[in-house]
Amino acid sequence: MIKIMTVFGTRPEAIKMCPVISELKKEVQMKTIVSVTAQHRQMLDQVLTAFNIIPDYDLNIMKNKQSLVDITCNVINHLDDVVKKEKPDLILVHGDTTTTMASGIVAFYNKVALGHIEAGLRTNDKYAPFPEEMNRRITGTLADLHFCPTEQAKQNLLSEGKSSKNIFVTGNTVIDALQQTIKAPFSHPVLDDIFQMEKKTQKKQRIVLLTTHRRENLGSNMVNIFSAVKQITEHLDNLHVIFPVHLNPAIQNLSNEMLSGNRSIHLIPPLDVISFHHLESRADLILTDSGGVQEEAPSFNVPVLVLRDRTERPEGVTSGALKLVGTDQNVILTTALDLLTNKEHYNKMANSKNPYGDGHASERIVKVIKNHFQL
């Protein structure tokens, strides 16, 4: 029996790891051990519930005002005990979080093989995004198996001297997750109100979904983003901005200060993964600094304006599904207004092909693992 341990700790990781866990659990020759660090407690639990995943180990490391050093030290200290007890044959981590990087170090210290899902993403700027760029680079150095979402990610690893024998292009598991979340009928009070208004006025109500949370956008960048969003609502009638506000107190306080009281802007609590995916699918335009949203939205044919100066997901920009707008207030405003008023420009982005997969990435990852252990 081959022991495969998955380790993750945040909401985005969980969304992309749960389909892999479900696929692993189908294998009778593998024992799947699920370990979570709970780097993000509440938002992680929402995803685990949605995918019906019960962890075997919950390190529960999250604490108030935790620093990157706190997270790193706590993951290493707590996970090391679990790895020594279970002695897995392979540890699987995902992406670019501090949990991922620290788990890779624990795997290395215990001489356990490491598999890196969503490997090879690069901006080539160590501080953008921070700390994610260096987290994935460190993890990539330690990894034995690299599961790349795209051919470009594979080429990034090859250029760094990684062996082609250990690199596998699988697609992104977030597309697998969409197969599970976009199923049942869905409703939300804000959406219900918007659709009722549409019926009453006989006018199409358009929805802009806003998400922003990155460390590098806190402060003046976020002020610029919120100012642009307010201006967009002033230029267009029948427009609704829905903003699931991140739990970070700095974001909560600034959004309340700048956006509350505007009838066109709906500040709502963070959504569970099923609700969020449905909301993405109903949006007309998305403004985001999230990595996962850049991958998900093209599956719904929704144009995305990326609130960052650079992205480690250039495939979406190349395909035309994403557009980098940074955090300049005027650029955000003019680009959003152009898409919302110019059908030709809008349709060109909306009809772009999603370059991030076909919904079978988890199957490919498990197949590679089976071949690796000659099962």
How many alpha or pi helices?
Answer: 16
Estimate percent helicity.
40-55%
Distance between the termini: 10 Å
Q: Give the amount of beta strand, in percent.
A: 15-25%
Rg computed from alpha carbons, rounded to a whole number of angstroms: 21 Å
Given helix and strand content, the structural type is: alpha/beta
The biggest beta sheet is recorded as: 7 strands, parallel
String of helices and strands:
EHEHEHEHEHEHEHHEHEHEHEHEHEHHH
What does this structure look like?
- With 375 residues, the protein is of the alpha/beta class.
- It is 48% helix and 16% strand.
- It is built from 16 helices and 13 strands.
- It has helices spanning 11-24, 41-50, 68-86, 98-109, 132-142, 151-159, 173-181, 189-201, 220-235, 249-259, 273-282, 291-296, 314-319, 329-341, 343-350, 361-372, and strands spanning 2-8, 30-36, 57-58, 90-94, 113-117, 145-148, 167-169, 206-211, 239-244, 265-268, 285-288, 304-306, 322-324.
- The protein has a seven-stranded parallel sheet, sandwiched between helices. A six-stranded parallel sheet has the order 10-9-8-11-12-13, with helices on both faces.
- Strand 6 (145-148), helix 6 and strand 7 form a beta-alpha-beta unit.
- Helix 9 packs parallel to helix 10 (249-259).
- The model has no long low-confidence stretch (mean pLDDT 95).
What characteristics describe this protein?
375 residues, alpha/beta, 7-stranded parallel sheet, 6-stranded parallel sheet, 16 helices, isomerase, WecB-like, EC 5.1.3.14, UDP-N-acetylglucosamine 2-epimerase activity
